[in-house]
């Protein structure tokens, strides 16, 4: 086999592994009602990667990071085609090998670690069968040998019970564990290069830090080279030797990690690097509450699975309460209890001094109107067949009976408030960007003139700069309309920017609650400290320090 | 003793056993409900059983005697439970037209129908599923379009037309096989297979398209999943990706459509049986409907319902077992 020598990979050897020259990638898109047209996703990007090195690819969504990463395997998602340039791996242009040559390379020379391991594993097969599959397919190892290698990798990646975890099915292990198994799967073929595509983005911060450390160790122990794709500069700063900043499919800046985060040369890099801090002065607690949750206990499965235990929080008019915690801590369940979707078993909920009926169906129109909600996924929270005007106009008709011109004027007013303007009135959700969609959802909530809006992870699916814009907008609207927010998030940076008071939730309980300044000032309880210390900081060597100083294991393991 | 009850408890608490037990219980209830419907339906029909047995010239006294003898003067629910009790002990009653025991004359017919259905299924199910897999492998290409074209043509032609086409070409022109599917007791296996070859082929044409199209759709649906991309990025061959990664996750919908078509092969073969003069259940039913032979219609109706419900329960259970989340709980 021609590639045999290249498989002898040694960390000290050096030399170029991957050389991408003038890469151009295009896709054919089919806009509804228009003729199909070609768009350029990656435009004239070149990069080289030395053996055993890690190159971070960073940028916002649509920057072409994943597309470039996958091009190193000659793979294009959907209708994506590599239309120009060369991809030279181990000294040969892989695009000239044809589909059979590419198939030989995938899973043996280059392996891929996907963002959501939960979706990337086949639910029908045991983990071990999937981990060794590529080895067996390419004949690089016999089954027994491959399994031995896999168990060693499970051990290296810190998975519990490494001998037996391979016998499990994907649904039987946690998300953080699955992401490590996926890394083991990539390493099992002993590739020269691994493409990590946002491997920790879908994880909780406290889990992310463990997985990140495991990936970093595995990379340095095996000496594999990696393309590490992420939108989070603080994360990539922990693992990458060099960083490449991309925007709209073009190269913005490329340098070693220290230079990019300390001395960025381009303005765009600077914007990414600078902490998106919003100075938000904490407001003093009011006298009367807009929402008072008292000793609420709620459960699923007919009282069997307790998901909220004795939760009490207050929200004051025109203020923001942030609820933070990991997935499964009961944040969203609290929202479901307040909105009446999951009637509490015990405790009471008061709205503006009056008790709120437990069930959604028992609430009257005015009680519904005063409590609105904004969701994480703006695009699934809107009917794709309705225009922006219809979407925002609906609560105006439903709650206030506005019709015709009166309604249209109010819609235009709301569109101005969310800084979009009435030009968008006839657009469909599919024609909007992620940030614009979320703005429309905000306008829809605002149209009801509510006293309280529940914001459930509203910025989590957005790029940092766009998310920042949404947060600023929410704060401005709060100042104008005196609306209160219950802000559910797992992101502590967001909390600092927007909250007046904070409730930290852990396994269905509020473990820390009070004004922002108080909650974020030591001494901390163990869980709050874990949460705070797990937020990646843009500093080389942060990861090692954070791991060393932890007092408590994350719940995701 | 204690150990056994512990095992029993463990089995009952496992979600999969519970689900399957639920499905079976539901099936039995459904079957009972159907039996009530069949009974009530045949009671509503105009006409008097005693009258139809004795004919128009019977004296009122003779009619009254016979009614008393048959228990027709009892309230409806008593008659229903008597009928149901008979069915459960294998006594389906007596045919009015021939005075023969229904169970014994039905037995051979049912066997013939199941024999034909079995071989039609052996022919059509693997063919349809394989063609579905091949269609996905070459999706939107010539092969896919050709398979879909043949399938749609065969399903849009009525089954009697397909039957006559087969008789015309294979039996009359080529003289390979007989055009009439006569079978009798003690017939050699090879001869029996020859006799049912044409009806089995005709049935295959009828059920092929539905199963093939559903297999194709179910697998294409799974092909959108992220784990298919993982398999592609492992460098697996396309047919392996479909076989190993897509098919196992499409099994529940495929089994559903297969069972539906199996049920059709048993219950819906009337036309094909009549064309090929095959002595199965369908012909038996048609004969006795035209003679207004209520007990036979009831018995056949109940057997058809049992086949339908039974196969659907099997599909449900297979779907449950195919789900790894239920098979291997956390």
From TrEMBL, chain A:
Gene Ontology terms describing biological process: peptide transport; transmembrane transport
Subcellular location as annotated: Cell inner membrane
Molecular function per GO: ATP binding; ATP hydrolysis activity
Keyword annotations: ATP-binding, Nucleotide-binding, Transport
ABC transporter domain: residues covered: 23-273, 291-532
SMART domains named among the record's database cross-references: AAA
Keyword Repeat: no
GO cellular component: plasma membrane
Membrane topology: Peripheral membrane protein
Family annotation (InterPro entries): AAA+_ATPase, ABC_transp_ATP-bind, ABC_transporter-like_ATP-bd, ABC_transporter-like_CS, Oligopep_ABC_C, P-loop_NTPase
Protein family per UniProt: Belongs to the ABC transporter superfamily.
Protein name as catalogued: Peptide/nickel transport system ATP-binding protein
ATP-binding keyword on record: yes
Domain of life of the source: Bacteria
TrEMBL record, chain B:
Key words, A-Z: Cell membrane, Membrane, Transmembrane, Transmembrane helix, Transport
Main localization (coarse): membrane
A single BP term in Gene Ontology: transmembrane transport
A Pfam family this chain is assigned to: BPD_transp_1
InterPro entries named among the record's database cross-references: BPD_transp_1_N, MetI-like, MetI-like_sf
Top-rank taxon, per record: Bacteria
UniProt cross-references to Gene3D superfamilies, sorted A to Z: MetI-like (1.10.3720.10)
Annotated ABC transmembrane type-1 domain residues: 110-315
Membrane topology summary: Multi-pass membrane protein
Subcellular location per the Swiss-Prot or TrEMBL entry: Cell membrane
Gene Ontology CC, one term: plasma membrane
Similarity section: Belongs to the binding-protein-dependent transport system permease family.
Name the record gives this protein: Peptide/nickel transport system permease protein
Source organism phylogeny: Bacteria, Pseudomonadati, Pseudomonadota, Alphaproteobacteria, Hyphomicrobiales
